[in-house]
Amino acid sequence: MIIRTATEDDAEAIGQMWERLVAxxxxxxxxxxxxxxxxxxxxxxxxxxxxxxxxxxxxxxxSDEQLVGYVLAVIVDIIPDMFVQxxxxxxxxxxxxxxxxxxxVGRGLVAAxxxxxxxxxxxxxxxxxxxxxxxxRAFWEAVGGRGVLIRMRADLxxxxx
Length: 161
Fold this sequence. Notes:
globular
């Protein structure tokens, strides 16, 4: 397996993987939104727009000339200005094809992003993981993640509104 920086030629495949990522999460919890019609193509266009952004890193995992995963991370200031400012890494998306899960692909992608962030003097990285994604939560704990905040939701239409 090779982990490398994404290129323009990868954008369409990344968009297709994004659609599978969204479908996976929607199947776990219907409260998570499904992809809009053409959402993968929109995502691919956004990938193309970010390829040369110095604060964004998009990597792909390749096995036998086929893409089997990707990760997108950014360097951001995620703290409102009333707090002490600290740039952080934000891992926006990561996906590994079913056939390549539990073979180190996800760990390799995360390690490569962590190395990039460290090279850029970033001391922490954050991400979101769906509450119902027990496999994802276990993965993130295995690579050193820990819970910091819990995002909650109340569906107002079900409260007798």
